[in-house]
Sequence to fold (153 residues):
Amino acid sequence: MSLEKAAACLETKGFAGHIIIPEHSSATVAEAAEALGCEPGMIAKTLSFLQGETPVLILAEGLARIDNKKYKSRFGCKAKMIPGDQVEALIGHDIGGVCPFGINEGVTVYLDESLKQHDTVYPAAGSDHSAVRLTIAELEQACEHAGWVDVCK
Fold:
C-alpha cells in the first residue's frame, strides 16, 4: 500500500518512470546500495523525527549522520527520532520504505545539504524493495519540502 501511495505521488509530479523495484531488499543504506549497484552515499536516507508533536523527515546522504548541535541550532530542540512502532502511523510509510512521497498530511520534509555532493540520489519509494532514481533538481521537484538544512556531520 505504501509503494502505491508513493508511486501515485510521484506520478502526479511526472516521476513514476523513475521508480526501481530491485530483487533484493533496499531497507538499509547498505542493502539499497548493493541492490541498486551504487555507492552507499548515493542512497538518500529518510530520517524520521518528532519536534514536539510534529513529525519531520530529513533526507540525507546515505553515509551522513545527524549532528546534534547543528540540529538543535537549526530547529531549537534536540533530535528525537520517532520510535519504530510509531513511524508508519505518523509518516504513512513503514521503516525500510520511509520516503517523502505520499506521506501523511502535516509531515514536514527537509533536504540536507549532504545530498548535494551527488548528482543522482536514490530515496526509497514507500517499501523495503523500492527506490527512485532522481537528480537533485528532480528530488526538489518530486517532494514537497520546506527547504534545505545543514544538520549532518
